[in-house]
Amino acid sequence: MNDDTIGQVDNGFYRLLYEHSPVAAIATDRQFRVVTCNAAAGRLVGLAVDKIIGQPLVEAVPANRRKLLARLLARTAERSLISEFEVRVPGSPSKARDLMIVLSPIHAPDGAIRGIAAWMVDETTRKKLGERLVQAEKMASLGTLAGGVAHHFNNILGGVATFVDFALTSGDRQAMQRALQMTAEAAARASRITQSLLTFAERDKRRADLADLTEVVLTFVHLVERPLEERNIRLRLDLHPVPIVPIETNQMHQILGNLLTNAEEAMPDGGTISINLGRIEDRIVLAFGDTGCGIRLEHQPLVFEPFFTTKGLLAGGDQANPGLGLSVVHGLVLEMGGAIGLESEPGTGTRFLISFPVPQRPLEEEPLAEEED
Fold first, then answer.
1. Whose CA, among 83, 206, 336, 344, lies 20 to 30 Å from 287?
2. pTM metric for this prediction
3. Are the beta carbons of 213 and 284 closer than 8 angstroms?
4. Domain 3-122, CATH homologous superfamily name and number
5. pLDDT per residue over 242-297, tens digit each?
6. How far from 321 is each of 123, 262, 317, 341, CA to CA, in Å?
């Protein structure tokens, strides 16, 4: 299409573009009554176009979502904001549709708001594919988890059986005592693995005493600073004033302890551990970094998976490391309402970023909360 053709495009062309668009579009007046909609919108909401025009837009969605839509329409008109929300259009289980609706203001040439445009996209297929992907990832993780559990408990039980069989056949009292000692050690190891799995699965709901996050970090540093010096590891602490964040003390100590163990293993010849606490926008961020060997890029997406290890027996190493430390950290952080991520460069070091939302104060304006379906 050349410049002359572009200049000759009339309103009829745009009308055809609007009517035949695969994206559903509805426009309202300033009172939020529908003045026009295309065929795609009628198909999505399950109504004829002539049944929609002239009606309040809120009546195009199920009754349990109308209150929220009315509030979003008012906010879009009053503040000239773009808003979006999801709605499920009922039907048979195989025909129900999930719609994403985006509301945007329609401005007149003088800047005044003439009405609201509602753009609707059918998200049903995408959501189903997403659910299937999540299920597939869960099954893959369960397979990895089952394999790791079977490997570790097979080694433990196999060792116990060997000790006991030798003691029974030898008849030696000292051998029997040694077998009992090794069995007790194996049982303790199995108990530690089981406890870590329970923590990872977020099923340990025992509540401990709460303390401020800053206080917990200071106490932890006081406990570990001298032992780290003996291992030629320097500890750098950088704390900035942050709002009080109540944290379960024992769980936070376990998180920091597991991160410390991971850092020590990455720095066998010494190095520096940095702990920083501060605020970034609406999050309280605790950064725990080391100057160790770092994590290879292909391993970084796996570090929070249970039984993933590059040092333990599962990875061909010589350490009795079940690979549960970081997965336990991940589970605890999520249970406490936080989030965790990492930054790492091989040969440079690793930094774990734990963040918690800033405690909310009572708001002057009621937040827009979606009603339950």
1. 206
2. 0.46
3. yes
4. PAS domain (3.30.450.20)
5. 888 888 888 888 899 889 988 998 898 999 999 999 998 889 999 999 999 888 88
6. 44, 11, 9, 22
